[in-house]
Design goal:
Length: about 475
């Protein structure tokens, strides 16, 4: 190849979440979030009742409380991202840093000032911030007092929060995401939606009513953002997981379609502004009746500017799933695919699935797309290199290279894609398992699952590899 298939203004970068890397959970007026009280992670390997993991106070062995101390080291870390050539950096604002309980009338100025400093530092290196408004960090008070998004009152609290940050940062941030992996609330209602009702006791009626509240809040945020700054680009963010019918049996294909519709529901409403017909049958057959406020239908018509998503794996589905081995680590369930390899955490590796997702989303919505999470969690080993400690992470390079080559194929298919941010460009704490040993980064952080370590940063082999990918705008992927 002599010319890159990636657009000239393609936004290369990395993605993080406040609750997984900021630390400083109790500094400068920050309140507790749901993440601060789930020391074992928000998604156990077996999805079930999360309530035993939830305490009323932070637990010292929760790595997320200190994260990797980005709160105090943001200048050092952003300089490393700039050295790699980042064009964009995805981060989230910790809601409870701005409104410590979530239902206050006035924001916490110290929290607002922190993000001012972060955005100014990014601007120094011409790195665009891509900001997630709510990334698995509902203020704990809203979960305990209102049962999270199960309560319609959260729409008003969220509206006050987004108005505050939109107005504060209207000249510093252009790209916004309303919720992280909004469809994950169906599988992790406490982590994703702050819903304190034990999962085993949560009715489908209450769960889908909570979904409705989030979707209305998301559309309202889109409306408000466009009013405050018409140049804002506001997107939704969903967990993308293509499903293959396990066999050519039409019933298996139907099972795969029904699984994917659970996810399409969220992007359909964000992109089309109304509930799709297929979900109406599901509601009827499960005695679900969504309560609409008089204004909800009009609010939902405020559709997003682009669709963003995470992509880590695909699954297989069958009409008789009990006859097959379940895919380990696949958050949304699914059957293990015998044609795919798996990561150390059981997540099946499927680069071609990313091309399929890109084409499916673009064909369905004809909206710009943004890949905002993709990467490989692995147990890296620090070794001595010629320039100091490093990690020989050829397995990560191989994973990312194969996925990005499929992104290139999707671009040649005609998909409009704005950018790509790898998950965890610097090692951070896993949301699902609360481990730091599940590393994704180009930058190694000296911290262990037991909390020991110096927090020193070291460049992995993949650091220079990704730097070259960005410098050549993807052309190096083909050499």
């Amino acid at each position: 190849m002599t010319q890159s298939v990636f657009p000239e203004n393609f936004l290369w970068g990395g993605a993080t979440a406040a609750n997984q890397f900021e630390g400083a959970y109790n500094l400068d007026g920050k309140g507790l979030s749901v993440q601060d009280v789930t020391p074992q992670g928000g998604m156990p390997a077996t999805i079930g009742d999360l309530d035993p993991l939830i305490t009323d106070e932070p637990t010292p062995d929760n790595l997320k409380l200190e994260g990797i101390d980005f709160y105090h080291r943001y200048k050092e870390d952003i300089a490393l991202f700039a050295e790699m050539g980042f064009k964009v950096f995805r981060l989230s604002i910790a809601w409870s840093r701005i409104f410590p309980k979530g239902d206050e009338k006035e924001p916490n100025e110290a929290g607002l000032q922190f993000y001012d400093k972060v955005f100014d530092e990014l601007a120094k290196y011409n790195i665009e911030p891509l900001v997630t408004l709510s990334h698995y960090e509902t203020p704990l008070h809203l979960a305990r007092t209102y049962n999270g998004w199960a309560s319609r009152q959260l729409i008003g609290f969220y509206e006050r929060y987004v108005r505050t940050v939109f107005n504060r940062y209207k000249d510093k941030v252009k790209y916004w995401l309303t919720f992280n992996e909004v469809n994950s609330v169906l599988h992790g209602p406490f982590m994703s939606g702050g819903i304190a009702t034990p999962f085993a006791e949560l009715s489908k009626q209450d769960l889908y009513q909570a979904v409705h509240h989030e979707l209305v809040a998301s559309a309202l945020a889109t409306k408000i953002g466009h009013e405050i700054n018409p140049d804002f680009k506001i997107g939704c963010m969903v967990l993308a997981m293509p499903a293959y019918g396990y066999t050519a049996n039409p019933l298996d294909q139907l099972a795969a379609r029904e699984f994917e519709n659970q996810n399409y529901l969220f992007s359909d409403i964000h992109a089309r502004g109304k509930y799709p017909n297929y979900i109406k049958r599901y509601f009827e057959e499960n005695n679900i009746s969504i309560v609409f406020a008089p204004e909800d239908e009009a609010i939902l018509k405020n559709t997003v500017d682009f669709i963003s998503f995470s992509y880590y794996m695909s699954v297989a589905q069958a009409h008789n799933p009990e006859d097959y081995e379940t895919g380990r680590g696949n958050i949304m369930g699914g059957i293990k695919n015998p044609y795919l390899e798996s990561s150390e955490w059981g997540w099946q590796i499927d680069p071609v699935g990313l091309r399929l997702v890109l084409n499916d989303f673009y064909d369905r919505y004809q909206l710009p797309l943004f890949i905002v999470e993709n990467g490989l969690g692995a147990k890296d080993v620090l070794v001595d290199g010629p320039d100091g400690p490093t990690v020989e992470d050829d397995y990560r390079i191989d994973y990312l290279k194969k996925h990005l080559q499929q992104v290139g194929e999707a671009l040649k298919d005609g998909v409009e894609l704005w950018g790509y941010t790898t998950w965890g460009p610097i090692d951070l704490v896993s949301a699902s398992t609360a481990q730091l040993s599940k590393r994704y980064g180009f930058i190694y952080v000296d911290r262990n699952d037991d909390g020991t370590g110096s927090l020193a940063r070291y460049k992995k082999k993949s650091f220079d590899w990704y730097k070259k990918v960005i410098a050549t705008n993807g052309e190096s992927l083909y050499h």
